[in-house]
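User: For this week's homework, look closely at the record that follows, marking any run of repeated tokens, and judge whether sequence predicts the tokens.
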Amino acid sequence: MAKILVVDDSETVRNRLVTDLEAVGHVVLEAENGVKGLQTLDSNQDTNIVISDVNMPEMDGITMCSKINEKPEFKNVHLFVLTSEFDQELKNKGKQAGVKLWITKPVKMPKLIEVIQKILDR
């Protein structure tokens, strides 16, 4: 199983992801914005996947992903975005920031769990 960091300013979204991901055996960390996400990742460098919202206070998800992508110690961390945003320009910015998967809310948990497993199996 994986260590997954969930970064979202919505406590409801974080709680749902934590509950569902832990139910299938993953270790899940959480943070409410990009600044805290980076701090959590720095102290948990064995994290496999980051799932982040885009629009958050203090630091947005794209900026956070870009900062993660710049650090060599996180080159093996898979970056996902989970957002209600679907603008192609924003998706392109995400891709440039190292985002591998763009998921629109509301998330279908069985599909997300399946995708996580496929990425871990590679």
Summary: The chain is about 45% helix and 20% strand.
